[in-house]
């Protein structure tokens, strides 16, 4: 005989489970370990959109977290740039003065013009080195920030090898923006010179006005363009994009965050410049007064200038290295912040860290679907 089991509406235990059933407990709030938890921080920054304080702190923390790879790279590259510049330009300048002094009086004007042209052409060598070396350092710091965010710490050699794979597109981009800025300055200066040369008093007034307002317009355009394309280096290195595609994507990522990005860039630059002046100004004052006290009559002027140059380089190279690393790190962090805010990159990074910790082979989280792997 089959008997239907009946259950009271308020009974917490189905009768068919009898005395072995466990009643469902009522909700009494979140249990320990199941409430809100801060976002994970596997490495350099927490995996969430980055606040201003965190961004500024992390820009300097890059130096402390992996000093051999970051400060070491900056030191090597800045030393190479400054030493080559001093040697090439200095030797050419000494040669030019010697050539002018030894030329006959009736040929000194022509020799001077030729020497000036030679000096200008010689500046191309350190300029080209600066473009390539700056691009390399930028790529190194972008890779370091990206991997440090995931809790990884790479050696200097590994960073250089990874950065070298994207060196030429980044060097091309650096050359393009440098050339565009120089072209803008040349256009404004050329118009001013032309107005002053052919316009008399009215031309001088017009030249001054063009110089002032043209300079302001050029500065505003430079700030706007630099801000809109500020994450191009990170896109070239981390997403394996070309220059054109990086510019388009940077324009899109910074949409809606222009003023925030510009403010962070200006603030980081201001902090770096203030620190640089605080360190270098006392050295300059000591050198100046020391030279006057030791050699007031200028008997050892050449020797004093050599000592001053050497001490200046010893101080300037580390300062320039720190400044370059911090500013490059800030740009890379701005890129991460924009992608976290607009594309949920923080979730992708958290999944990557969790999967990698479990031994899974996971793809690069910075690559966007459809972009080729570097």
Automatic annotation (TrEMBL):
The keyword Amino-acid biosynthesis belongs to this UniProt entry's keyword annotation: no
Residue ranges crossing the lipid bilayer per the database entry: 45-63, 75-97, 117-146, 167-198, 204-226, 264-294, 306-336
Chain residue ranges for the region called Disordered: 1-40
Keywords of the record: Membrane, Transmembrane, Transmembrane helix
Protein's recorded name: Glycerophosphoryl diester phosphodiesterase membrane domain-containing protein
Species name: Cryobacterium levicorallinum
UniProt lineage: Bacteria, Bacillati, Actinomycetota, Actinomycetes, Micrococcales
């Amino acid at each position: 005989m089959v008997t239907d089991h009946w259950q009271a509406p308020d009974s917490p235990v189905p009768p068919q489970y009898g005395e072995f059933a466990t009643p469902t407990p009522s909700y009494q709030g979140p249990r320990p370990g199941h409430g809100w938890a801060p976002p994970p921080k596997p490495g350099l920054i927490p995996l969430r959109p980055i606040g201003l304080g965190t961004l500024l702190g992390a820009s300097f923390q890059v130096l402390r977290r992996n000093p051999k790879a970051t400060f070491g790279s900056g030191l090597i590259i800045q030393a190479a740039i400054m030493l080559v510049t001093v040697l090439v330009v200095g030797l050419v300048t000494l040669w030019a003065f010697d050539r002018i002094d030894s030329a006959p009086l009736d040929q000194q004007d022509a020799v001077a013009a030729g020497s000036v042209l030679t000096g200008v052409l010689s500046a191309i060598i350190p300029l080209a080195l600066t473009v390539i070396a700056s691009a390399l350092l930028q790529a190194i710091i972008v890779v370091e920030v990206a991997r440090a965010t995931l809790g990884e710490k790479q050696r200097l050699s590994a960073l250089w090898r990874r950065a070298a794979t994207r060196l030429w597109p980044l060097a091309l981009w650096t050359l393009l923006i440098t050339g565009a800025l120089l072209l803008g300055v040349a256009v404004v200066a050329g118009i001013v010179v032309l107005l002053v040369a052919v316009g008399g008093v009215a031309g001088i007034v017009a030249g001054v006005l063009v110089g002032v307002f043209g300079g302001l317009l050029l500065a505003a355009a430079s700030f706007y363009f630099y801000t809109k394309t500020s994450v191009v280096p990170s896109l070239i290195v981390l997403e394996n994009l070309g220059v054109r595609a990086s510019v388009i994507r940077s324009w899109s990522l910074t949409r809606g965050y222009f003023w925030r990005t510009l403010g962070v860039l200006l603030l980081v630059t201001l902090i770096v410049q203030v620190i640089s002046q605080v360190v270098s100004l006392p050295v300059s004052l000591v050198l100046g007064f020391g030279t006057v006290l030791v050699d007031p009559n200028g008997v050892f002027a050449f020797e004093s200038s050599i000592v001053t140059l050497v001490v200046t380089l010893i101080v300037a190279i580390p300062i320039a290295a720190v400044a370059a690393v911090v500013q490059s790190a800030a740009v890379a962090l701005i890129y991460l912040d924009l992608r976290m805010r607009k594309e949920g990159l923080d979730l992708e990074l958290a999944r990557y860290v969790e999967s990698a910790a479990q031994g899974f082979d996971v793809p690069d989280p910075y690559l966007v679907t459809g972009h080729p792997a570097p």
